[in-house]
């Protein structure tokens, strides 16, 4: 399998070549040349597989430069009941007739990013050892991504993580999760400033090409194809649990920010998994809902990006969206460049409203969308607790709200649960007046010793710290 860039000006590459890369050199995102097709007989054979074997079957359709036995071992080591809490890995729970929650957040950091990041950690370690190389991951986080990356890379050979976060601005639980890690290869850097300062530092360091090469700086951001691929697996696993046979369609609703999660659903659907509808759920930051309603994609300025109670969906633009639009415009790189380079570059938006391609988003690709507000989230958390004795987090609440607006009788609706309520306790307390339960392994973590350094919002200071800790 070869990978091409959405912008059409990069060499075709194989999986392990793009594994450690971010954007393609032409600024585009990597996608497989074709989507492997899965027929009913294959679905039948996969239906009864344990999760790690299902992951191997799907991954091996996209990865032909890792020997099968090695890839199988990597999947087996990644998706264990010990790490993800249950044998099913992503158990489905029926809320009411035909509406399900698929639990994706029982991994080490209690959010769905573990599903992909844990695999990425093992793939990185494998590939770096094979090349005799090292990688220093530099990132910026306001919570979920940073902790998922650290828990995935801790103790991994050949990898160091330098994770910047805005000093004092993460929730105490999130700070404790990250800063309590004592592994020598994990470096927490609290920046005196806000999240944007952290992102600017990462950009400045990455733009210093000499430094970047010398210190082998890489990232684990959500545009990484391996992360997206890992997420395709749980759409299949959810489908099998929601159906008794392979001729029944299922719909999914996905709490969305950077469009990585739902884009994996799109890939699963393109492979032939019988998905009827993919519902993109947003909060007040509704760039994506606006697009699917109107055909206008309008990137927001930082000042127009709201801080909400589902913060992991607070985005101004959706970094994986270009992958879907590439398929939407018939995989025409010239048209894609027109939209993402010319139009977005000039005006910060593009418009497909009158384009026949836009109709296909719903008709051919099955996309719908929904939007919710803080009040909606509170209402959904209360309602779900009251009627089904089930506690959900604010992101999952965004999903459930959008899902209820898109139900089709007879078609199961699977809502992806993207975080556990304990991660966003303040909003749950606001809704219900009580603290969500905390898994045993996280009891008292706020009191553990913290491993973190404070640095000013200055790229030079961060570079000096990295240089100092690289041998
Ligand atoms: C990252 C995240 C999302 C958004 O996922 P995308 O892949 O960026 O669309 C939703 N909910 C939670 C809890 C997250 O951590």
UniProtKB/TrEMBL annotation:
Residues 2-79 form the Threonine synthase N-terminal domain. Residues 92-330 form the Tryptophan synthase beta chain-like PALP domain. The modification N6-(pyridoxal phosphate)lysine is found at residue 113. GO terms for biological process: threonine biosynthetic process. Pfam families: PALP, THR4_C, Thr_synth_N. The keyword Zinc does not apply. InterPro entries: Thr_synth_N (IPR029144), Thr_synth_N_sf (IPR037158), Thr_synthase-like (IPR004450), Threonine_Synthase (IPR051166), TrpB-like_PALP (IPR001926), TrpB-like_PALP_sf (IPR036052). Its EC number is 4.2.3.1. GO terms for molecular function: threonine synthase activity. Gene3D superfamilies: 3.40.50.1100, Threonine synthase, N-terminal domain. Keywords: Lyase, Pyridoxal phosphate. Its cofactor is pyridoxal 5'-phosphate. Belongs to the threonine synthase family. This is Threonine synthase. It comes from Variovorax boronicumulans. The lineage of its organism: Bacteria, Pseudomonadati, Pseudomonadota, Betaproteobacteria, Burkholderiales.
């Amino acid at each position: 399998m070869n990978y091409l860039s959405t912008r059409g000006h990069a060499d075709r590459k194989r999986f392990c070549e793009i594994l450690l890369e971010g954007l393609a050199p032409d600024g585009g995102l990597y996608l497989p040349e074709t989507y492997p097709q899965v027929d009913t007989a294959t679905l039948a054979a996969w239906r009864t597989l344990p999760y790690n074997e299902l992951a191997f079957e799907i991954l091996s359709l996209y990865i032909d430069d890792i020997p099968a036995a090695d890839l199988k071992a990597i999947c087996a080591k990644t998706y264990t009941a010990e790490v993800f809490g249950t044998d099913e890995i992503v158990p489905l729970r029926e809320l009411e007739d035909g509406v399900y929650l698929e639990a994706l957040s029982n991994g080490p950091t209690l959010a769905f990013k573990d599903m992909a990041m844990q695999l990425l950690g093992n793939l990185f370690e494998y590939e770096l050892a094979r090349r005799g190389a090292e990688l220093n991951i530099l990132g910026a986080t306001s919570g979920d991504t940073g902790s998922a990356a650290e828990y995935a890379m801790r103790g991994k050979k050949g990898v160091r993580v330098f994770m910047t976060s805005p000093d004092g601005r993460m929730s105490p639980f999130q700070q404790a999760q990250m800063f309590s890690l004592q592994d020598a290869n994990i470096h927490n850097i609290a920046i005196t400033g806000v999240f944007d300062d952290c992102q600017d530092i990462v950009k400045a360091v990455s733009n210093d090409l000499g430094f970047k090469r010398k210190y082998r700086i890489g990232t684990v951001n959500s545009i990484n194809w391996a992360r997206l691929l890992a997420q395709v697996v749980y759409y299949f696993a959810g489908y099998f649990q929601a159906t008794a046979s392979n001729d029944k369609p299922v719909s999914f609703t996905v709490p969305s920010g950077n469009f990585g999660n739902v884009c994996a659903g799109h890939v699963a659907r393109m492979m032939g998994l019988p998905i009827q509808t993919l519902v993109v759920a947003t909060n007040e930051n509704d760039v994506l809902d606006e697009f699917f309603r109107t055909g206008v994609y309008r990137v927001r300025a930082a000042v127009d990006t709201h801080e909400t109670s589902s913060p992991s969906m607070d985005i101004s633009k959706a970094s994986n969206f270009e992958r879907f639009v590439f398929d939407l415009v018939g995989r025409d790189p010239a048209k894609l460049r027109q939209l993402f380079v010319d139009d977005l570059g000039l005006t910060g938006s593009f418009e497909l409203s009158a384009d026949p391609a836009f109709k296909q988003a719903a008709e051919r690709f099955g996309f719908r969308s929904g939007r919710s507000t803080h009040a909606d989230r509170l209402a959904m958390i209360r309602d779900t607790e009251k009627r089904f004795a089930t506690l959900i987090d604010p992101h999952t609440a965004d999903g459930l709200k959008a899902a209820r607006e898109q139900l089709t009788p007879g078609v199961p609706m699977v809502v992806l649960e993207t975080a556990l309520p304990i991660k966003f306790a303040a909003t749950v307390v606001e809704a219900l007046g009580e603290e969500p339960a905390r898994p045993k392994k996280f009891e008292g973590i706020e009191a553990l010793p913290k491993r973190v350094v404070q640095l000013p919002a200055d790229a030079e200071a961060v570079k000096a710290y990295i240089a100092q800790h690289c041998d």
